[in-house]
Amino acid sequence: MTAPLLEVTDLATHFHTRAGVVKAVDGVSFSLRKGEVMGLVGESGSGKSVTGFSLLGLIDPPGRIASGSVRLGGQELVGMPGAHLRKLRGKRMAMVFQDPATTLNPVIAIGAQMRMALEAHGVTGTEQTRERSVQVLTRVGIPDAARRLEAYPHEFSGGMRQRVAIAIALLHNPELLIADEPTTALDVSIQAQILAEMKSLVAELGMALIWISHDLATVSSLADRIAVMYAGRIVEAGPTAAVLRNPRHHYTQGLLDSLPARAEPGHDLVQIPGTTPSLLSLPPGCAFAPRCPRADAACGVMPELLTEGARQHRCWHPLGLEVAA
Amino acid sequence: MLGHVIERVAQALLVMLVMSMLVFTGVYAIGNPIDVLIGPDVSQQMRLDTIRAYGLDRPLWEQYVTFLTRILQGDFGRSFVFGLPVLDLILSRLPATLELTLMAVCGAALIGVPAGIYAGYRPDGVLAKVIMAVSILGFSVPTFWIGLVLIMTFAVELQWLPAGGRGETATLLGVQWSFLTANGLSHLLLPALNLAFFKLALLTRLARAGTREVMLTDTVKFARAAGLSEWTVLRRHVLRLIAIPIVTVFGLEFASTLAFAVVTETIFSWPGIGKLIIDSIQSLDRPVMVAYLMLVAFVFITINFLVDLTYLALDPRLRKARA
Amino acid sequence: MKPASPLSRFWAEFRESKVAFVALAIVVALVGVALAAPLIAPQNPYALADLVLMDARRPPGYVGSGGFTHILGTDAQGRDLFSAILYGLRISLQMGLIAGFIAFVVGVSLGLGAAYMGGRREAFIMRIIDLQLAFPAILLALVLSALLGQGKAQLITALVAAQYAYFARTAHGAAAAERGKDYVEAALSTPLPGWKVVFRHILPNCLPPLIVVATVQVANAIALEATLSFLGVGLPVTEPSLGALIANGFQYMLSGRYWISIYPGVALIVLIVAINLVGDQIRDQVNPRLKR
């Protein structure tokens, strides 16, 4: 077995706010092989986006990476000087965000924005940058790319804008792409197109992909593996099919039950009772306990992340494994 | 595009018309101009003759129409005090004010915008705090007081720079300019600094506020994620995004700089239109006051128009919407 | 644990900024000193008969014919500068506060009224106000006070004319934003008269930005009054404000008699900067976009 491309160990990212320390990410570990697609799933505020930004070293004060390790191809990124980290961003690892309307600079033509991203990693010269930009834009499905370099972001549709953003992320053929809810702001039909495009890109370029989403359905069509986050921790991880078919954690089960596709026609959608806890006042034990149907006294202590084969879960009362009492 | 320009020109003309009415009624309807024209000891007959000669016995609207027709022919009347045509008087003083104002505004922009971007980029740094403290001073301390302190320090105590006057001038395009000679430049420096202080503070604060907001946007995060250096992010992305409010204020402030030149020119005995207007206000020289106010309004409207055109260059979204 | 009221939470956050806290203390102290001027001042600077010309333009520390020490020296008329500053502070504050208050009332009424009326009348009022805002306030005040003549009432008129538009625009902006919200629609559908809805529901929600503008505008009014007096179109010399005191000393400055201008100036600057610092802190606390 080859060494993993990305190895995250006990990553913790904390925000020091006026109201107290917010542990947005608290002891997250996972690894990713070349060409592998991992879905990182959770509700808003579960720490999935902060995890993505932490990998790139893009945490602004008052936040900072408190502890842990992020290794890309064996190289430690946590504590690396900013200038070195910058040389990796966009080159070996890249990121795409949720809303393409706000990520692209509205007052700069996209050709110029692509050129900046190319020049950041030593690709210079009008001809060269132009050629590469057109090549990548064409690859992500922008028709007539050469002519559209002079266009501004508002002259593209939402879906096309996201393709442009993806093209910028792919300019240097990164080994790792982090996609933070890149289809959430788009129409459903466009979502499907972008998903299909991403699949073929991953297969063709052999890059690893972390797909961050709150939507299990989208993730399941794309990811080889799924990691479910709740309140800054991974509560369950494993191969997509296994996790979806036999979830171990009650939170994963709740997410599955609330999918519209699983609802019986004419019945209300199932909801997880309660709301996401404030990261400022987490219960001492399992953070999901207050909303969990199976919670008891044992849940007052934080469960360890247990490994069974390719799967992991963090629960005292895992589904499908209950020991007969 | 052309339609938009024509519409704006029409709007500008309308605003000028409204301004002329306000200025005319404001200056002529309040108080009695006749008391300035003639002494209190002249005969009643002479008084009536003067009133008739100046058309002051006519109804106000009729006076206004006469006034407007004359202005359209380029005749702003004669100064009560100097006895010269007002237009000639103002034009002869204009270059001194123009070079002072331009130097102040450009200097303020060249220093203020970078300082503000820095303070917005590192809001918790020591240098940022120093920049903001200085800008609060510049923002709140009245211009005349800064002028006094500058004279006290650089002219009286250190004796590095002259305290007033224009110094030697050189001729360019038939007009006398101070900035062309070393001596003139030394005379220009303190008043320009004085006049620049407020704009400097204003632009610094604007640039800081804009930068703070832009730095939190996804645009900046995405640019960083693509590996752009911080310098490139600031210079290429942030500067472009904060440019629009800065250009707006920069333009508007140019007109108010003309107004604040009144104070600076008084303190530094700078022979520009500001000094002229303060003298004419003190002697209630109405034709000069009216012409000056119309000039400021004209400058203001022209600049607004130019600012509007600059928007089109700065924001591609508007180009499409207004095409 | 009892829930803190919004006001006490605001105060707690305000106190966290040492600079703003010190600035507020200075403002309070200066207002106190100005109110108590007749009690503290060693001399009544308006009693022209008491002035001795021999004592004129003496440096700080000079013991005058009145028998007491002029700790800040004397001015060109032989006035004790310390006393003159206390009284000047009183006048400057008085002008700033009165003008600020009237401008607030006039501006807010216009702004809210325009937002409430809507349609063409709103557009017309706001166009005029925008036009005026674009025109430099100092010129307006300068020309008005020159035409109206010297005196407190005339000066206040000029200051109000130069400043009400800022309040009008702020009030209108905030009210227009509130008007579209559901709770206003709900209140308007009740039998309450429209103006009551404006005062009970819309005005309170517009107050935070208005308070910020008010703080800044009082400081501006004081600075503007000082500038006008410095230029000689403000208050008569018999009752000098800080600005007039500075102007009186200006001509002696080049000959090294710095104190006549400098000390009133320092008092003026400390007052204005302190008010602005307080306003700055309030602005930062009111702006939700900078909240973390």
Topology:
The complex is a heterotrimer of chains A (325), B (323) and C (292).
Chain A: E1 6-17, E2 20-32, E3 37-41, H1 48-56, E4 63-72, E5 75-76, H2 82-88, E6 93-96, H3 100-103, H4 110-119, H5 126-139, H6 145-148, H7 158-170, E7 176-180, H8 188-205, E8 208-213, H9 216-220, E9 225-230, E10 233-239, H10 240-245, H11 250-257, E11 306-308, E12 311-313
Parallel strand pairs in A: 3-8, 3-9, 6-7, 7-8
Antiparallel strand pairs in A: 1-2, 1-4, 4-5, 9-10, 10-12, 11-12
Chain B: H1 2-29, H2 34-37, H3 44-53, H4 60-72, H5 86-121, H6 126-140, H7 143-157, E1 170-172, E2 175-177, H8 182-215, H9 218-225, H10 230-267, H11 273-282, H12 286-314, H13 316-322
Antiparallel strand pairs in B: 1-2
Helix pairs in contact in B: 1-4, 1-12, 5-6, 5-8, 5-10, 6-8, 7-8, 7-10, 8-10, 9-10, 10-11, 10-12, 11-12, 12-13
Chain C: H1 6-16, H2 18-35, H3 37-40, E1 62-63, E2 69-70, H4 81-117, H5 119-134, H6 137-148, H7 152-179, H8 182-188, H9 194-231, H10 242-253, H11 259-286
Antiparallel strand pairs in C: 1-2
Structural notes for this entry:
The complex is a heterotrimer of chains A (325), B (323) and C (292). By secondary structure, chain A is of the alpha/beta class. Chain A is 30% helix and 23% strand. Chain A contains 11 helices and 12 strands. Chain A has helices at residues 48-56, 82-88, 100-103, 110-119, 126-139, 145-148, 158-170, 188-205, 216-220, 240-245, 250-257, and strands at 6-17, 20-32, 37-41, 63-72, 75-76, 93-96, 176-180, 208-213, 225-230, 233-239, 306-308, 311-313. In chain A, strands 6-7-8-3-9-10-12-11 form an 8-stranded mixed β-sheet, sandwiched between helices. A 4-stranded antiparallel β-sheet of chain A has the order 2-1-4-5. In chain A, α4 (110-119) packs across α5 and α5 packs across α7 (158-170). Chain B is 76% helix and 2% strand. In chain B, strands 1-2 form a two-stranded antiparallel ribbon. Chain C is mostly helical. Chain C has one domain (6-290): MetI-like fold. In chain C, α4 runs parallel beside α7. The mean pLDDT of chain C is 80. At the B-C interface, α1, α6, α7, α10 and α11 of B face α6, α9, α10 and α11 of C.
